[in-house]
Amino acid sequence: MTRRQASARRPLALAYCALVVAAWPGPGHAETLRLTIENMAFADALASARVGDTIEWSNLDIVAHTVTARDGSFDIVILPGKTGRTVLRKAGKATFYCRYHSSMAGKIDIRPD
Amino acid sequence: MDILTTVRHAAATAFVLAAFGTTPGSAQPAPKPTDPQIAHIAYTADDIDIKNAKLALEKSRNKEVRAFADDMVRDHTAVNVRALALVGKLKVTPEDNPTSQSLVKQQDAERAKLASLSGSAFDKAYVANEAAYHGAVNGALETTLIPASQNAELKSLLQSGLGIFQEHQKHAEHLATLVK
Question: Which of A2, A21, B13, B101 is most buried (most C-beta within 10 Å)?
Fold first, then answer.
């Protein structure tokens, strides 16, 4: 194969790899977990969250909230009636709170992938 | 809460409670408010707190006090947007009443007093008034406005408001212990 042919095939090969990676469920198949924020409180923590999972928060209150990790790993603002997403990147206990309403707090136990 | 804060809080609470006719010395209980009056009182109470917060944002340099004031503007504006949407939907015209008028008069006077203060004296007085004001409004919501409301959607909005304002009250009370 000439160098020109090889470089012409590289994008295809990369695209194939990307497809395989995207389709590969892997041992720690990431999930989207749904939690609600309602009546000025975060829903109870999940027992089964894993690294790579996404949490989709639904704010059912009539005021905006934030979901802010105490270690700074995530901080999202969720407007009333809207949803926001957080990808869990680190294993361990993630404690979080609402920057607008400091009495609102919660935690998630995140298991390694 | 130290003794000075407690005294300030008690004085401000008595001041605001008088607007709702709920002081111990009230000779007769106020007549039960109607839904249009309740809507007016709720909107007015929110609007007053937005004005108080805007004054704090003009005057205070304290980071926590300013953050609290930002929270008050954001939340009370959001509640009033809902309140206006609901009265529009229900075709209810909010009706001015002595409780709304008394609240406005008292908090106008309180704001004039606050405007004459500066620095930590302002911060302490603002936070004490916020704790007392939310306490009084929450008391009125629980004992008068929510039980008296007839429309289910109005009642539900008032209940949501109560949950939010109780959090504000806790926040203000906590802040009162921090502002020196």
Answer: B13
Instruction: Find the CATH number of the domain harbouring A95.
Output: 2.60.40.420
Any A CB within 8 A of B155 CB: no
Structure ipTM: 0.83
Residue A59 lies in a domain: yes
CA separation for the pair B126, B171 (Å, rounded): 13
Higher pLDDT, A50 or A2: A50
State the DSSP H helix or E strand holding residue B137, giving kind and residue range, or none if neither.
helix B119-140
Q: In what order do the strands lie in the sheet with A83-87?
A: A41-42, A32-38, A54-59, A83-87
The model's confidence at residue B1, banded by pLDDT at 50, 70 and 90, is very low
Q: For residue A97, which amino acid is it?
A: Y
Q: With 60 as the cut, is the pLDDT of residue A9 above it? A: no
The confidence band for A48, taking pLDDT boundaries of 50, 70 and 90, is: confident
Cβ distance of B74 and A100 shorter than 8 Å? yes
B167: nearest CB among A62, A64, A101: A101
Position A98 in a domain:
yes
pLDDT tens digits for range A24-46: 444 557 899 999 999 999 987 66
Q: Assess A104–B contact: CB distance below 8 Å, yes or no.
A: yes
Per the structure, how many domains does chain A have? 1
Is the CB of A63 inside 8 Å of chain B's CB atoms?
Answer: yes
At what angle are helices B152-178 and B35-59 packed, to 10 degrees? 30
**Is the Cβ pair A63, B174 closer than 8 Å?**
no
Domains parsed from chain B with CATH numbers: 3-14+34-178 (1.20.1260.10)
pTM score of the predicted model: 0.82
